[in-house]
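Teaching assistant here, posting this on the class forum so everyone can see the example we discussed in section. The complex has two components, and the goal was to see what a joint structure prediction looks like when all of them are supplied at once.
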Amino acid sequence: MAPLEIAGRTFASRLIVGTGKYPSREVMLEAIRASGADMVTVAVRRVDIENPDRDDILGTLSPDEFSLLPNTAACYSAEEAIRAARLGRAAGLSDWVKLEVIGDPDTLLPHTEELIEATRVLVAEGFVVLPYTNDDLITALRLEEAGAAAVMPLASPIGSGLGLLNPLNIRIIKSRLSVPVIVDAGVGTASDACATMEQGVDGILMNTAIAEAEDPVEMARAMRLAVEAGRCAYVAGRMPRREWAVPSSPLEGVPPPA
Amino acid sequence: MEIMQIQVNGRERDVPAGTSVATLLRDLGLDGRTLVVELNRRIVRPPETESVQLEAGDHVELVHFVGGG
């Protein structure tokens, strides 16, 4: 299977995973390893001064083992997202950013106008920008024009686990963009991941589907296999759909009835 | 020793006048960690932490990477 390439960098896995909401650090590390992902998202938050080790992800994940992709989660304007991206880069581990600008707290749907603006500013500052966006072609095209290194439309709302709600829109986006298309958010289980990859997209980013599974490590393994299976099926090219049955065995040579 | 008040991650803190960013990090036991210092909305990079002095009323944000999607 050809590797995923974003901004000239090659990734062995087409699966990118988040690091939030795991029951424990140990389970997180084991699950991420089982997923096969080489890039993981992280958030930028205040240090707990009294207990700085508590939330520090670098205590669990080594930047030598995984590429870190800092996000701008919980930002509601271009200005806030740009600030969060700059803070993430200043840690000195990555100049990549998963750009989120949220427009509404109940749906966590993106604020596309602010997202495009933030993409433009951060690209000009030399960031490799991967924006999380709607499954909307026009926004995706504008993000590509703004210099996004990949465009990341949602399958369904963040943390919803509803799966791929609009495969048509995802296929349209994929067919019109030159940069990689990574479906980000909404996958709930392995069949969702497989069906998403079968649309021909370049990869999937997920967090909750693994972290909130009853057994995150086993689900991570399922997701790795599903992403690979979906990609292989897409590359293989599926058979046509038909309204009526077509026999698989020859009609000739059937011994006549007694 | 003259004491001044600053804010660190949203909480008031008394520090000696003339404290540098690097001294603050040492006093908090945070030196050597991978974190980012923002002083009044401006990022202070590691080479500057010794030379940048804090002033009364300064807002310091100390951030690092945590789990997220």
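For the discussion questions: Residues 216-236 of chain A form the longest helix (21 residues). The mean pLDDT of chain A is 97. Think about how each of these relates to the inputs above.
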